[in-house]
Amino acid sequence: MARSYYSTVFEQDAATVWAVVRDFNGLATWWSAAVSESRIEDGKAADQVGAVRAFKLGESTIRERLLALSDLDRSYSYEFVDPAPFPVVDYVATLRVTPVSDGRSFLEYSVVFDCNEAERGHWTSFFATQVFDPAMKALSEYLSQ
């Protein structure tokens, strides 16, 4: 298994950041430059474990299933729904927001997955730098408005 990790600090408190990212269907709201549309399938609620979000990232449609959501821990985990948009398997991502003592917040985004061993370095870097980093920069911009 491989692991990709990204973290950042937001000027806003953890409750404020969590209120935005908690919405499993909210990508198109705060990452609108990359995500043109998002919907939850089958009439489920966006915070219901098992909910599947389908969103457009560029020309691709990506489907992800919510596996866990904890308001106490300010975290959620999700997996890709077949077919996966990338050549990886057993992909499980977790986003967590933690308070920082000075009133800011610390956000961690990580994923574990498996793939062809020769491509592990590529995908480990890709998820951190091409997915999580631009998403969190967009979130920072959204929160600063």
From TrEMBL:
Q: Which InterPro entries match?
A: Polyketide_cyclase/dehydratase (IPR019587), START-like_dom_sf (IPR023393)
Residue ranges that the Swiss-Prot or TrEMBL entry lists as coiled coil: none
Checking SUPFAM superfamilies in the record gives: Bet v1-like (SSF55961)
Protein's name in the database: Polyketide cyclase / dehydrase and lipid transport
Q: Which organism is it from?
A: Cryptosporangium aurantiacum
